[in-house]
């Protein structure tokens, strides 16, 4: 199992036309500040590495950084963590991303099941996912009706109607699901993809965090 | 030489000569009941018994071996110890038998040391001899259309012949459905217990059933299969021709584990099955009775093409229960046309609900007026489907079922309709029978009636989706 590093993930998603929350990978506090100025505060800092699958569990994500002072503190924390947690041969860095405040979060994933083959998963994200368990699975490839049915099954339709009235946002979500399915089918070397969370808001749909695992070799 | 697929299954379900190997005269043995099933099912073909220990069993001459039978055999049924099955299969091959039902247990499902290996050998020998096997480790199969009960349960022959064919990974579930279907007068066609699926799996039977004229709808009880994509592809082809309902177990971990020891199958993650089944056009049921009820509605009724349902009820309470359930399944209560409204106001007194749900309470003792109300509602253009609900009350002198009016309304409009009705034993049996014969599915529980309508609507969606 091999986790792709951020730049590779970013370029794969770009190639597949899947929108990612704007961000920049940095290797020093100075670079982090420049990136934050360019993106605009508030920002999020994430410790990204080929060695760390679950960033949240090790405190590798710091949200809502509003100024230089907070950024400095966060950088110190994450660069220290990186040095301790990642072996020298592992690639790692700190990702500065735009902070997005959206109420609707979904998860989208794809993996290869040993008996079903390629599968896509879609569900409500954020704090509701564990309790509501509104997750829907389909076998790949997908027909347009499958995506519609997944959205309907997870009750996201009702949320979209009340929270995001713009129909083009819904289209954006459908495009992400459909493009992920094409990406996954066209690249058999990818074992698993996990977009969590994907933000749905007035400005569109964006993948905030993407994990891509490839087969070794 | 291998027979063509359709011929093999015709040979299983419509054989001329059946041999039962291991029939017994002891009522404590499966071999006794298997023979009893065959003798009492009205089977028109010839039955042969093979058991060297007897001269005759249940009045049927017993042969010492298959070889000793001079006529050819279409179907052999084995009810013998598992260790004797392989040798007997070779004898079947020698005799030119292509269809074998192995009821015997003691294969991969068992804790027997050699169980797994026996199954592997069975598979290999079957392939060498070009033999199709149903089983092993199954109660058998039944074809009510051909008066054939090839199972160890004679009471399968008590079922009414109808349009639902059931393929099951569990014999127990077939028996549960058996009792329910007899009581509810549900009509079945072919019932197959797949057992350990040595070389007959869901995807072998589905193409046959989808072209089988007497099968109108298909019900599957599914635990899990080794090649789920193959199952899904077979389902997709089937639903282009016939409606198919599935009940899949293993929703939670425990049931998943039980399935492994049960028929030696691999129950898969429920969530993926659920999504895939829907994606490939199956209609999902949530329990065994729902499975057979929805399948029955699909075997009798037309597809529901709209979403507007009329509820006609003898009591307001049940009308409310049904309205709630309809909403839960995403149906709309139909808004009657002006003509209907006017007519209902003329027919019914102002003490009762004359909109939808229509409450027949105050006119209950007048069968003719109730009948007129029913016909009026069926004919309304704003109504796509109808749920009728009667209850048993008072005495039969007071309350009669408007059977003729219901039958007339159904045949005239051909709108999908179901009935919710529960009665004590012996009450309204003739009426129920006549309604059933006219094609009205009757359910004791309101949720099953609504779920049946849901199935009729779902199949419409499936057909539209696969453009058929």
Automatic annotation (TrEMBL), chain A:
The entry's keywords: ATP-binding, Ligase, Nucleotide-binding
Coiled coil regions, renumbered to chain: none
Domain ATP-grasp: 10-46
UniProt KW Flavoprotein keyword: no
InterPro entries: Acyl-CoA_Synth/Transferase (IPR051538), ATP-grasp (IPR011761), ATP_grasp_subdomain_1 (IPR013815)
Family from the record: In the N-terminal section; belongs to the acetate CoA ligase alpha subunit family.
Native species: candidate division WOR-3 bacterium
Protein name: Acetyl-CoA synthetase
PANTHER family: 3-HYDROXYPROPIONATE--COA LIGASE [ADP-FORMING], ACETATE--COA LIGASE [ADP-FORMING]
GO molecular function: ATP binding; ligase activity; metal ion binding
TM spans (from-to): none
PROSITE patterns, alphabetized: ATP_GRASP
Highest taxon of source: Bacteria
